[in-house]
Design goal:
Length: 467
């Protein structure tokens, strides 16, 4: 196969992952399935672990965060951790706890804005619903995923005739303008549903009374349960349009949630691929991916990168050695914090610093910010440059303009908490936080190759540092 064919094949596999991952729960489930197929065993946080060298494991939290690791054949407590960190969540509209809104003859669904989305891009899209539902089954409570692939919801734009300055100032009120339409009350009534909002009914506390009856019916059909079995839910809206390879030369990826499913997916592939040959037998470290939920809202949750989950996992894996095995492991470890980066935008090129304009196809972006919105340092960048040289993956540097606020990610949060050497990187993309984003096919392949090279080569690069 030519390089272009390889790149396209890699990108297409990623696109199917994105289309099957409309929520963080689905993303974790997809990754779990890939890991199990590659011989990883599931551990439970609540159990005692009996982790062996040269074996592979994973553990999940809240079903929306996953840490997977391959223990080197030469690993002993006190040895380092080679970690790629990324996140599983993306900005989206989420169904409110009590979401029945009936207005102007429409049955609507109350939604919350999760994260910093470009909300006007959610208008006039054919929206579906996906997430998880907690279901009572006899004396058991089950965690069930749901993915309604039909376009059942729409947030319509106001027409230009009723708002003549629409193109000049299309400002979105996040409470009153983004509420999607599910049905008309006319059709709903013909269908046998009483669409009047009975607030007293809502107070009954029954979960099924908090959602539009039509939605309850749909969820129950999908899950094959009755309304009284529904206990609670986390439901996300998503675009029904499938991801696509785009551009006249098939060089772009047009897809939702590239930030940050691209790195969640490619780090998992990089970890699995790094274990495909015998290199794990000689490995002194533990190779790990840590994919967290809630990055888009600041990471401060039990399953977020700001929690102690990462530290607890590392401590358990360092147990059994000297009393300070965990502390000894930290300086030998390295966190590659992978989150998407901003490619130069031709129509807004003045927004980029003139010497730092990451381009599509030209490599993975190293994010640097002396004010520590990114965790990269001269030392951690050097390690990355060595890893990328050994993996033959090009890098580009990014720094934000001094007059522009800088984004941030899990890198600074985790490196500060753990005291772990960290670099912040990402693949260049456009339209970040839009409902439909854009990157290049090459970067999916480059990210996979970089992470694989990191897992295989990091211990050797670390040992070459003569200071
Ligand atoms: Zn991100």
């Amino acid at each position: 196969m030519s390089t272009k064919e390889v790149v396209l094949a890699v990108a297409r596999r990623f696109l199917s992952f994105v289309d099957e991952s409309p929520s963080p729960y689905h993303a974790v489930d997809q990754i779990k399935k890939k890991l199990v197929a590659a011989g990883f065993q599931e551990l439970r946080e609540a159990n005692t672990w009996n982790v062996k060298p040269n074996a592979k494991y994973f553990v999940t939290k809240n079903q929306s965060t996953i840490i997977a690791f391959a223990v080197g054949g030469q690993f002993k407590p006190g040895n380092g951790f080679s970690i790629v960190g990324a996140h599983t969540d993306s900005p989206c509209l989420k169904v409110k706890p009590m979401s029945i809104v009936n207005k102007s003859g429409y049955n609507m669904v109350g939604v919350e804005c999760y994260g910093g989305g470009i909300w006007h891009t959610w208008f006039d899209r054919d929206l579906k619903l996906a997430g998880r539902v907690l279901v009572r089954n006899g004396d058991k409570i089950e965690h069930r995923l749901v993915h309604v692939r039909k376009p059942i919801l729409k947030v319509p734009n106001i027409c230009i005739h009723l708002q003549r300055d629409h193109n000049e100032k299309h400002s979105v009120n996040k409470e009153s303008h983004v509420c999607p339409i599910l049905a008309t009350s006319v059709q709903s009534a013909l269908n046998g549903n009483n669409s009047s909002t009975d607030k007293d009914e809502n107070k009954s506390g029954q979960t099924s009374s908090k959602l539009q009856p039509l939605l309850v019916q749909l969820l129950c059909d999908e899950l094959q349960v009755s309304p009284d079995q529904l206990l609670d839910f986390d439901l996300h809206l998503a675009d029904t349009q499938p991801s696509a390879i785009g551009g006249i030369l098939d060089e772009f990826v047009f897809a939702p949630r590239l930030d940050n499913l691209l790195n969640a997916y490619t780090s998992a592939v990089g970890l699995i691929d790094s274990c495909a040959d015998s290199s794990l037998e000689k490995e002194p470290n533990i190779r790990m991916i840590s994919l967290f939920d809630n990055e888009e809202v600041g990471s401060q949750s039990a399953q977020g990168a700001g929690s102690s989950f990462q530290e607890f996992v590392l401590r358990r894996l360092s147990a059994g050695g000297s009393q300070t095995a965990f502390e000894e492991a930290i300086p030998k470890s390295y966190l590659l914090s992978a989150d998407q980066a901003h490619a130069i935008h031709p129509n807004y090129s003045e927004k980029h610093e003139s010497n730092h304009q990451p381009a599509l196809h030209k490599g993975i972006v190293v994010k640097i910010n002396s004010n520590q919105r990114y965790a990269s340092t001269g030392i951690t960048n050097t390690i990355l440059r060595e890893v990328s040289r050994l993996g033959d993956v090009p890098l580009q540097d990014f720094v934000v303009r001094n007059d522009t606020p800088c984004g941030s990610t899990i890198g600074p949060i985790m490196s500060a908490k753990l005291g772990m050497p960290t670099v912040d990187i990402g693949a260049p993309q456009l339209s970040m936080h839009s409902i439909r984003e854009m990157c290049c096919t090459t970067s999916v392949w480059q990210a996979e190759s970089l992470y694989k090279s990191f897992f295989i080569n990091y211990p050797q690069v670390y040992n070459s540092m003569n200071f």
